[in-house]
Design a protein that fits this description.
alpha+beta, Thiol Ester Dehydrase, Chain A, two-stranded antiparallel sheet, 3 helices, 35% strand
């Protein structure tokens, strides 16, 4: 568990493993979403709310929208920093923004976002529900720490 949280931005370090590269020696495109997830869940732990504990409580936060823009290639054994911030908090959703950079040469590798919906996880019923107050408070504080924009959205 590595990472540093300052001014609303969580910085999580990953090293590209061989199995995350394609035949050309570059990070396979699907792995950037895994880097986002790893950084997002580490950020949540750092903010005092474990994704695992949230699921044990019967609340799920599945990704309902993902956006990814490739800027430059990342290679085997590159050390990358995934910068994660809470962009928006809605009544039943939260949106995270990401930047992946290679700090050795300050190269921007990828940018993106994920929107997570809040659902009930009890059997077959996976209906959309409001974010619990504790999660809303954590995400809103993180959003406000990283932006001068209002943290809440209509969705």
């Amino acid at each position: 568990m590595n990472g540093e949280y300052t001014d609303g931005v969580f910085r999580h370090t990953v090293m590209v493993r061989y199995g995350e590269t394609d035949q050309m020696g570059r990070v396979h495109h699907a792995n950037y979403l895994l880097f986002f997830e790893e950084a997002r869940t580490a950020m949540m732990r750092t903010l005092g709310t474990s994704y695992a504990d949230t699921e044990i409580a019967g609340i799920g936060l599945p990704v309902r929208k993902a956006d990814l823009r490739y800027r430059n290639a990342a290679l085997y054994e590159d050390v990358l920093v995934v910068e994660t911030r809470v962009e928006r908090v809605g009544p039943a959703s939260v949106t995270f923004n990401y930047r992946i950079v290679r700090p050795d040469d300050d190269t921007l590798i990828a940018t993106g976002s994920t929107e997570l919906a809040c659902i009930r996880m009890d059997g077959r019923d996976a209906s959309l529900i409001r974010l619990p107050e504790d999660l809303t408070a954590v995400f809103t504080a993180a959003c406000q720490a990283g932006s001068s924009e209002p943290p809440n959205s209509p969705v």
